């Protein structure tokens, strides 16, 4: 019962580098989400997807892109990393939307230097 | 901008005491959810309360919802050291109900 798996768990990037964070869920959930968590800021929604092939912007989408080519995977990309993107990134999934709780991954700690 | 705001930001109690944390939100909701986050871990869903419910229980957790005041409270009874964590309320991003947005959380410390 893996639930939501995020890879990698830690990463250090140099400013301007690109990378992709992978989120995989094995619960057949329709909805998937990417959040970032910064000290004192709580969680902020970056992008989300309500099904395979769909994506939508959240509260703080700038500087990020996402793709949901397969139902079980949701990828978060940083094309040109900036120090302001240093954060802990959490992926979550839910069976549907509003009437279901979310299952979260354990997070990816990203540092941009 | 965050829909829900928790209060207090931090709370320290002794084992066996009750812990109460509050959440205020700005717009109308279909439901409100509470989550727990242990240090260095992902969030764990605790309880969901719908807008037509006033109170809900789950084990030692009791959640109330007052839609007229746009507020909710989470009560943890007979706290244990293992309850030490951050607690977040979450409400819907939009009327379509497609995503949750979270408050900044209440950090609870339970000492033995």
List the helices and strands and how they pair.
The complex is a heterodimer of chains A (113) and B (112).
Chain A: E1 4-7, E2 10-13, E3 19-25, E4 31-38, E5 42-49, E6 56-57, E7 65-67, E8 73-78, E9 87-94, E10 103-104, E11 108-112
Parallel strand pairs in A: 2-11
Antiparallel strand pairs in A: 1-3, 3-8, 4-5, 4-9, 5-6, 7-8, 9-10, 9-11
Chain B: E1 4-7, E2 10-14, E3 19-25, E4 31-37, E5 43-50, E6 55-58, E7 61-66, E8 71-76, E9 85-92, E10 100-102, E11 106-111
Parallel strand pairs in B: 2-11
Antiparallel strand pairs in B: 1-3, 3-8, 4-5, 4-9, 6-7, 7-8, 9-10, 9-11
Straight-line N-to-C gap of chain A:
36 Å
Query: What would the principal axes of the Cα set say about the shape of chain A?
Result: globular
Give the low-confidence spans of chain B: none
Task: Please indicate the percent range of residues of chain B in DSSP E strands (runs of 2 or more).
Answer: over 45%
Give me the count of strands of chain A: 11
The main sheet of chain B comes to: 6 strands, mixed
Largest beta-sheet details of chain A = 7 strands, mixed
> What structural class do helix, strand and pairing data of chain A support?
mainly beta
> What structural class do helix, strand and pairing data of chain B support?
mainly beta
* Biggest interchain interface, per-side counts: A-B, 28 and 27 residues
H/E element sequence of chain A: EEEEEEEEEEE
Distance between the termini of chain B: 37 Å
Helix content of chain B: under 10%
Q: If helices are DSSP runs of H or I spanning 4 or more residues, what is the number of helices of chain B?
A: 0
Count of helix runs of chain A? 0
pLDDT < 50 stretches of chain A: none
Mean pLDDT of chain B: 92
């Amino acid at each position: 019962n893996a639930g939501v798996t995020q890879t990698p768990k830690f990463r250090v990037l140099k400013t301007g580098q690109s990378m992709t964070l992978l989120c995989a869920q094995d619960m057949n959930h329709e909805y998937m989400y990417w959040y970032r968590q910064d000290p004192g800021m709580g969680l902020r929604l970056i992008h989300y997807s309500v099904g395979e092939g769909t994506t939508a912007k959240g509260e703080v989408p700038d500087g990020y892109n996402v793709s949901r080519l397969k139902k079980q995977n949701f990828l978060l990309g940083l094309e040109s990393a900036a120090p302001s993107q240093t954060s802990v990134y959490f992926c979550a999934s839910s069976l549907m939307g509003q009437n279901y709780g979310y299952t979260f991954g354990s997070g990816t700690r990203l540092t941009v230097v | 901008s965050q829909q829900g705001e928790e209060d207090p930001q931090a709370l320290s109690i002794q084992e066996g005491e009750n812990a109460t944390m509050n959440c205020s939100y700005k717009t109308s909701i279909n439901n409100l959810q509470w989550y727990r986050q242990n240090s260095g871990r992902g969030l764990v869903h605790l309880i969901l309360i719908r807008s037509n419910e006033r109170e809900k229980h789950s084990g030692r957790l009791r959640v109330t919802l007052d839609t007229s005041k746009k507020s909710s409270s989470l009560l943890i009874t007979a706290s244990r050291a293992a309850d030490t964590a951050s607690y977040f309320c979450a409400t819907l991003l939009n009327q379509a109900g497609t995503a949750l947005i979270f408050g900044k959380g209440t950090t609870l410390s339970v000492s033995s």
